[in-house]
């Protein structure tokens, strides 16, 4: 699939995230040729017993990375909403920053489909994969 070129820089995407959701939002590391890389600064409140990250933390980052990937190509479409999110937890993540590499699989007029790979930043071990579908406003 041929993607349109990025419409927003990582700085513009970060400003949208921060102004829409306040403090503690993920950090946009990079806008790539086919998506984005986003990082979440993990702390002990994201942990669960056993020294691992909580599933909701990983799902939040997958969802946010998909939203940012779509906006990077279409501009500030703040009303795009998640219609589907599936996640496969592959291994126990460490309590370190979580990195999401989001790749646009399809970007249509009504739907965007994004594949997300989640890594622990300290080991670069793949900890989860996700497929996220967003409905774009009419």
SS class: alpha+beta
Tell me, what's the shape?
globular
**Which blocks of ≥5 consecutive residues have pLDDT under 50?**
none
CATH topology: Thiol Ester Dehydrase, Chain A
* CATH homologous superfamily placement: Hotdog Thioesterase
Number of domains: 1
How are the secondary structure elements laid out?
Layout: H1 10-21, E1 27-31, E2 35-40, E3 47-48, E4 52-53, H2 55-74, E5 81-89, E6 98-107, E7 111-120, E8 126-135
Note down, in words, how this protein is organized.
The chain is of the alpha+beta class and 138 residues long. It has one domain: Roll (Thiol Ester Dehydrase, Chain A). The chain has helices spanning 10-21, 55-74; strands at residues 27-31, 35-40, 47-48, 52-53, 81-89, 98-107, 111-120, 126-135. The strands form two sheets. It has a six-stranded antiparallel beta sheet. A two-stranded antiparallel ribbon has the order 3-4.
Q: What characteristics describe this protein?
A:
Thioestr_dom, alpha+beta, Thiol Ester Dehydrase, Chain A, 138 residues
In short:
The chain has 138 residues and is α+β, with helices and mostly antiparallel strands. It has one domain (10-135): Hotdog Thioesterase (Thiol Ester Dehydrase, Chain A, Roll).
């Amino acid at each position: 699939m041929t993607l349109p070129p990025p419409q927003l820089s990582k700085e513009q995407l970060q400003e949208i995230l921060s102004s829409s959701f306040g403090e503690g939002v993920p950090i946009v590391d990079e806008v790539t040729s086919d998506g984005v890389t986003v990082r979440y600064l993990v702390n002990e409140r994201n942990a669960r017993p056993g020294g691992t990250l909580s599933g909701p933390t990983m799902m939040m980052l997958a969802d946010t990375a998909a939203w940012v990937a779509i906006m990077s190509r279409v501009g500030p479409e703040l009303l795009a909403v998640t219609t589907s999110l599936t996640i496969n937890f592959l291994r126990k993540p460490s309590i370190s920053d979580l990195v999401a590499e989001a790749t646009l699989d399809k970007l249509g007029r009504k739907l965007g489909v994004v594949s997300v790979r989640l890594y622990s930043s300290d080991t670069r071990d793949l900890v989860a994969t996700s497929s996220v579908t967003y409905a774009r406003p009419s």
